[in-house]
Amino acid sequence: MSNLTHFNDEGRAKMVDVSDKQATLREAVAGGAVYVSAETFGMIKRGEMKKGDVLAVAQVAGIMAAKRTPELIPMCHPIAITGVDISFALDEGRSVIEITATVRCKGETGVEMEALTAVSAAALTIYDMCKAVQKDIEISEIRLLQKTGGKSGQWDKESLLHSAEAKSAEAKMISKAAKVSSVCISDIKGVIKKPVPEIYVKIDHGVVGDAHAGDWHRQVSLLADESVDKLREKMPGLSAGVFAENILTSGICLYELPIGTKMRVGEALLQVTQIGKECHNSGCAIKRQTGDCVMPREGIFASVLEEGKIKPGDMIEVTI
């Protein structure tokens, strides 16, 4: 079972417990860009800004920000950073300053946020040093470029970009025959939901009229009809909504979709936030009536990115 680890059982944010993780060598590289006018670029290059050496100050700002990331990002762990390097590449033809931050540590969790924070602070410092000359400086393209270490090993943005086309093709194959079988709601929690002709899902809310709706990560629940079929041999007649799912699907293995997967379902766009869940109440109405509950094992949960109507027969398109 996989969970969105920054939420507790009440759907509220928490700091992830990394006590059981192994301390390994970790490195993260982040990048960003600051676009300025030709005049501003020339003054930076020649050291003519009244506040001083723009890049020298920005470099110090980036290093300081990396060390203070847990004070800025609420759920980040205090990490004993072993190295921070901020570098700048000046592209005179485009009047852009490209920033690269490399952060290293030996610990139980990675330093991606430290690298991204370092780039952000360095870019903002460049703006601050130059705003008297130019107000419309543009900061953009702040992103993680590479990470190494930890259980997930190496991640590289370039490799990800090269495989994007293959992933897109795979996603289309996964969802080729996927569709909505039924849509269901209930006005109280812990009971079987009833099929309805259609549902409407809202951003930051979920299914209108459903008890599980709210501004949290489990706004919409989905379960595959194929998962229910596994129990229909023992309990014939299981209908839509019996496991408290909002959307019953067919033609797609929901629990194999990675967290973060986006799905076009009818008019709406959903994003997978959790696979399965812990069943806290062994005596809930659902389990009493069915004898088992497949939702905790094979159901998924999603948030709403684009709102709209969803009804039986609507196609499901998985996107990357």
Short description:
The chain has 320 residues and is of the alpha+beta class. The chain is built from nine helices and 16 strands. Helix 2 (54-67) packs antiparallel against helix 4.
Can you describe what's shown?
- The chain is of the alpha+beta class and 320 residues long.
- It folds into two domains: 24-162, Molybdopterin cofactor biosynthesis C (MoaC) domain (Alpha-Beta Plaits); 169-319, M1 Pyruvate Kinase, Domain 3 (Beta Barrel), CATH 2.40.33.20.
- The chain is built from nine helices and 16 strands.
- It has helices at residues 38-46, 54-67, 69-72, 112-130, 157-162, 164-174, 225-232, 285-290, 295-298; strands at residues 24-35, 81-91, 96-107, 138-148, 155-156, 179-185, 194-196, 199-202, 206-207, 220-224, 247-250, 262-265, 268-275, 300-306, 308-310, 316-319.
- The strands form three sheets. Strands 7-6-11-10-14-13-12-16 form an eight-stranded mixed β-sheet. The chain has a five-stranded antiparallel β-sheet with strand order 2-3-1-4-5.
- Helix 2 runs antiparallel to helix 4 (112-130).
- The longest helix has 19 residues, at 112-130.
- The chain is elongated and about 80 Å long.
- The protein starts with 23 loop residues before the first strand and ends with a strand.
- The model is unreliable at 171-175 (pLDDT under 50).
